[in-house]
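Hi there,

I know you've been waiting on this one. I reran it after we fixed the sequence typo, so this is the corrected version. Both the input and the resulting structure follow.
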Amino acid sequence: MVKSVKPAKTVTPAASKTSTRSAPVAGMSVDALIEHALTAWRVHDGINLILLRALSDAALAVVPPASRGRSVSAQLAHVTKVRMAWLGANGVKPDAGIPVFGKAATPSKGELDAALTGSGRLVEAFLRRAFAGEVRVKMFNGNPVRWMGYLISHESHHRGSIALALKQQGHRLPESVSLKGLWQTWIWGKV
């Protein structure tokens, strides 16, 4: 029988009575740790843009076999809709320049680029405020790192689904994108 393990209580720097923003955490200041977390978001967000910018119009129209019929374009639109929905739930007002897509939308590469770039900046700005204790993330136990992890997991799932659909439908990504862009950017990429 597997015993359920209850996670330890999370104490954020703002909630701790002994912590200050400059107190070291594992040898680094809280501010440095925050910057590392934000860098992780920027790397992830940049990888989405590497993928998008490598796609042709024909690749954007690819639909994964045996799927619910969501094209590559529609999957990327879904990613931005989920970002904007969570930001809206947390009281963030969308910028006028960020395209909003309906359920059946198949936006162009330019529209998707604007939506991913704009929503990525809004996510980063919200995370920065949450890390500073200025706002609290709704749900996710109020933990901005968990929320960021959720977004990265969700979007990475779609990136994998897109890469597989492209490969299955004869639109294989070049190695400079599939290996260097989608994977090695985490290791050596600059933001």
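Quick highlight: Confidence is low (pLDDT under 50) at residues 7-20.

Best,
R. S.
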